[in-house]
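Blinded run. Sample ID left blank on purpose so nobody reads anything into the name before looking at the predicted structure. Input follows.
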Amino acid sequence: MRGAGWLKIKRSVTLDLVVVAADWGYGRRHGWLSNYHLAAREPASGRLEPVGKTFKGPTDAEFAALTERLLALQTDAAHGTVFVRPDVIVEVKVDGVQASSRYPCGVALRFARIVRVRDDKRAPDADTVATLRALLPRP
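Blinded prediction complete.
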């Protein structure tokens, strides 16, 4: 039997991931790039593999600054998504990862939120797909 005093405590982990694209916001976030596409490194192929998206975490000032920064890195755009050079690394707090058929690498983030931009790191310093796979729940 559960009591009213019980607390649910979720374990979370932080990952350093690369922003590879962002979607234009709407509503309160209109005019900002606010839904960030995140990728992890695949060292064997040298590719950046998409693992999820998030719009949670940044303040309004951070959204504005990230929009300016990402627009300077723009390589292409289509259907409201701006694709960028992989020069921005963010520290992302997640409640875990899960197996995914949506992403080719087979892993997706759960409840991702940006903690901070990592100006001290570059794309080769980002976490790998193997790091994310190691976080998958064991059967």
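Unblinding after everyone has recorded impressions. Strands lie at 13-24, 33-42, 47-54, 74-78, 81-94, 96-99, 107-110, 113-117.
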